[in-house]
Amino acid sequence: MPISSRCDKAHALASAFWDQLQSASNERDPSLIMAWLGVVSSLLGHIQLHGLQQPKQAAIS
């Protein structure tokens, strides 16, 4: 699988996880959700910057 396909897939998975965390924020411990949102945000930024070569998007992730 080419690297761009892997990066697209990684971005899609991380984005889906982000969405799940957003919807679970009312059901779980807020500090736990915030911690995971920080991890996923960092992951998305790295995928966008290094994998997808999107520095502007990575700056706002």
How is this structure best described in words?
This protein has 61 residues and is mainly alpha-helical. The protein is built from three helices and no strands. It starts with a helix and ends with a helix. The model has no long low-confidence stretch (mean pLDDT 87).
Please give the structural blueprint.
Blueprint: H1 3-24, H2 30-51, H3 55-60
Q: Helical region count? A: 3
**C-alpha Rg (nearest Å):** 13 Å
CA-CA gap between termini: 26 Å
Query: Strand-residue fraction?
Result: under 5%
Largest sheet: none
The shape is elongated
Instruction: Report the strand count.
Output: 0
Uncertain stretches of 5 or more adjacent residues: none
| Element-level helix/strand string | HHH
Oligomer: single chain
Mean pLDDT: 87
Helical amount:
over 70%
| Backbone structural class | mainly alpha
Question: What is shown here, in short?
Answer:
By secondary structure, this protein is mainly alpha-helical. Helix content is 82%, strand content 0%.
Keywords:
61 residues; single chain; elongated; 82% helix; 3 helices; mainly alpha
